[in-house]
Every structure is written in structure tokens, then in C-alpha cells.
Write a structure and sequence with these properties.
Elements (H helix, E strand, L loop, with lengths): L5 E5 L4 H13 L4 E6 L7 H8 L4 E5 L5 H11 L3 E4 L6 H6 L2 H21 L7 E7 L25 H20 L3 E6 L1 E3 L8 H10 L4 E4 L5 E6 H13 L5 E5 L4 E3 H12 L7 H4 E4 L14 H7 L7 H14 L6
Parallel strand pairs: 1-2, 1-4, 2-3, 4-5, 5-6, 6-10, 7-9, 8-12
Antiparallel strand pairs: 9-11
Length: 333
Amino acid sequence: MRDFKSILIFGGLGFIGSEYILKARKRFPDAKIINFDSQNYATSLHTKELLDAIENYIYIKSDIRYKDQVISALKEFSPDLIVNFAAESHVDNSIESAEVFIDTNIKGTFNILEATRLILDDGENCILHHVSTDEVFGDLDLEGTAKFSETTPYDPSSPYSASKAASDHLVRAWARTYKINYLITNCSNNFGPRQYTEKLIPKAINLILDNKKVPIYGNGKNIRDWIYVGEHVDRLIDLQMSSAKNDTYLIGGNNELSNVEIIKEIVSIIHPSGQWNPGEYIAFVDDRKGHDMRYAIDDTKMRNFLGKVDKESFSDQLQSTVTWYQKNLDWWE
């Protein structure tokens, strides 16, 4: 089982990154944890305060778009594990203004790779874990049963997914050319506590609690595979602690639901005795440009490699998520 002394996390104030830091603190109790994050619009000061309270933790306010600052962090802390969560991730924003996605997701990843190449001479002593998305594979037939796997060709549909696809390719190319040890994981849609309210599930929870309708693109039949953020992070750390190296693993929740079905599930938790009436809770709006129809992940490779993994029910995970937002309405204020 691998252990690490110095873990450098890019994007650790974000939704998945902050969950990772909280879990990594427990599972790597002796490691120094360094969080390099720009603290952008999707960051809550409450999340920052939560992380600031943990032991042997250092926060660096900076941006992966600045290569000299990335290099400086690697020089100072000599990490034996680098985990890259840092990314612009909201598809709608990428459609409206793609440049920051190119700068952060592509150029930023390049900067991390170059810093790793230049500073860490002995690549055997470090692993770079690049956290990516299933959206790099495009979409699947709405009525089909096919799922994405590690051998699915890349076919991104949005500026966001194209930028993440490019970053995946950079990691593999630098790994092969410069002998950098790496892991790439591509996950399905995450949900859980502390997710910024531009994303579907927290947006829906807040709007329904405020007795407002949830805007849903098109006819609401688009399907996503949902994974609870804590479950996703557990699998990331499981892979890091294992012998996995220079390989790619898909991580899914095996919870395929349409956007309308997600809203129905949330309504049933907030109003358990109410009758389901879509028109009462949903406002259908013009479809998103290039809207992907369906995502689904076959994570057999990951499960076979790790063996039996713990898994809660989706309904319990969604219930705990709704409860968290009910208790933390001021998290983004």
C-alpha cells in the first residue's frame, strides 16, 4: 500500500477538491497537504475556513495559469503525489465564454506538467493524478444501453469537454515523453455537500426550498450518471494507495436518471407528502447548444482492480445532500 509524505493539490477549495482534502487528511495522517487554489467565484469562504482548521495543511492562493508560481510550489514542497482538480467546469459558461477554459484547463495542465518535468528529476518518486470527466467521450444514444469505458474514443461536444480532453492528452503525452508517472480518472456527474449552486442538484434544491421553479433544458429527458462526491473521492484515494500507475480508470455511480427524474427525487425528499406535478416545479427552457443526450460509465476495470468497494444507496446519498443544503442555506453568502 502506497503512502505519501507531501501531497500537492491543485484546486482544493472546489467542490471535489475540498472533499478530497478532508478525506486525505484521515487516510494519509502523516502527510503534509498543500492546497494551491485561485479561490474563484465558485469558492465559499466557509469551505476555506473548514479546511484551514485541519492539521499539517498549507494554503497557497495562486492560479495554475501562472507557471512560475506552479514551479515555485513544486520547488518548495517536493510532492510525492500531485492531484489536479483545478478546472473551469460549468458547460454553460464554456459556451458563453470559452477562453478561460482554454487558459485554465489546457494551459494550466501544461504548466503543471512542465513544472513536474523541470523540478522533479526522479519521476519514480512522484505520481501525478489528473482528475477528469466522462464528458470527454461525447454522449450516448438516449434509448441505448452502451456505456463509456476506458477504450471509448474521445468525442467531446462542448468547449468545456474539449478542453478537458486536450488536458488528458497532454498528461499522457508528457508521461510517455518525459517518463512522468501518472493516473487519469474520468468520473460521472458528482453531487453532494458544498457544491456551488450553478450545478443542477444544488440549484434545484435551493429553488424548490424557495418555492421557485427549476429551469430544465429541452424536454428534460437527458440522462446523467450520478456519483456521490464522497464515494468518488474514496475511489480516488483507493487508487492512489494501490499499485495503480500510468493508467486510466473510469469512476461511475451507476445511477442513471433523467433531469426530470432528478427533480422528482428532490421534490419527494423536500415535500414527502406532496403529489408530483412537473408543471409545479419545473420550467422547461430552450435547449442548451450541443446538449449531450446521455452519459453512462462502465467502471468494471476500476472495480475489478480495487475489489469490493463500499457503496451507499443513491436515495440515502441524495437525502443527505438535501439535508445538508437545508441546514447550510448561508454557505454561499
